[in-house]
Amino acid sequence: MLMLSLAHKFTASPNRELGFALHDVARLLRTYSDQRARELGTTRAQWAVLSRLHRCEGVKQNELAEALDIAPITLGRLVDKLTAVGLVERRDDATDRRANRLYLTEKAAPALKELGALAEDLMGRALAGVDERTIEAMHDGLKTIKANLKYELTAGAESK
């Protein structure tokens, strides 16, 4: 059993503390998003697909999987479910007969409106007490961290 001693307090560098904080916040945000998505009878994963598809409608299924950082087979199952309830439709790609392009249906509009309102409420609660300048600075910093990590993953894959 792991015993945490109050007598010895380990202090990590600010960089490591930020890493711990990012991990904790991401986990809590996922948990809270899952909880709130259930209020609308959906899942966080389905919500992510609909939201990303709203921003880049007509994208190839494999491109959407990459953008969402999920396996193509996982996205395929999510799209199957969203297609079954009439929110998404697959269309053949005009230039590649092996590929599908994904489109939202008219039925998706009200769902997206509800999800948008939910997202605003959820993030409003999560960011309560944080001013706009700080939010912008955090967003800029997170974009840089994301770009750095993507570069390292790509560079690491190329060096193998």
Apparent shape: globular
Percentage of residues in helical conformation: 55-70%
Distance between the termini: 38 Å
CATH superfamily of the largest domain, called what? Winged helix-like DNA-binding domain superfamily/Winged helix DNA-binding domain
Looking at the structure, the CATH topology of the largest domain is Arc Repressor Mutant, subunit A
Query: Major beta sheet, specifics?
Result: 2 strands, antiparallel
Strand residue content: 5-15%
Low-confidence stretches: none
**Helix- and strand-based class?**
mainly alpha
* Architecture per CATH nomenclature, i.e. the level-2 architecture of the largest domain: Orthogonal Bundle
C-alpha-based Rg, rounded: 20 Å
Mean pLDDT: 91
Query: How many β-strand runs?
Result: 2
User: Which CATH C-level class of the largest domain is it?
Assistant: Mainly Alpha
Q: How many separate helices?
A: 6
Oligomeric nature of the chains? single chain
Q: Strand order, biggest sheet?
A: 1-2
Q: Provide the succession of SSEs.
A: HHHHEEHH
For the record, the count of structural domains works out to: 2
Short description:
By secondary structure, the chain is mostly helical.
Task: Give the topology.
Elements: H1 14-39, H2 44-55, H3 61-68, H4 72-84, E1 88-92, E2 100-104, H5 108-126, H6 132-158
Antiparallel strand pairs: 1-2
Helix pairs in contact: 1-5, 2-5, 3-4
